[in-house]
Write a structure and sequence with these properties.
The chain has one domain: Alpha-Beta Plaits, CATH 3.30.70. The protein is α+β, with helices and mostly antiparallel strands.
Length: 82
């Protein structure tokens, strides 16, 4: 369950990577699954979290909690010009 949840979550558009800020990136207990993700640049964190929850829930795991623990910024293109 843990490996499948991780694989599915990592494949959701907008997920930059799984984080593990509060422990393991995917935590499975008898009554829930918690997934920690970082969102990719240009993606809306709540939208990504919902998509991850729906994707992991579709594997038959329920309930699923998704924590966005990092939001990746656009690449820095050098100093700002005045």
């Amino acid at each position: 369950a843990k490996g499948e949840a991780a694989r599915v979550a990592a494949g959701v558009p907008g997920v930059a990577y799984l984080t593990g800020t509060l422990g393991a990136a995917v935590t499975v207990t008898w009554d829930q699954v918690r997934v920690e993700v970082a969102t990719a640049p240009g993606h809306h964190a709540p939208t990504v979290a919902r998509a991850v929850r729906e994707a992991v829930t579709a594997t038959g795991t329920s309930p699923v909690t998704v924590l966005v623990t990092a939001v990746e910024a656009e690449a820095d293109h050098g100093p700002a010009r005045s």
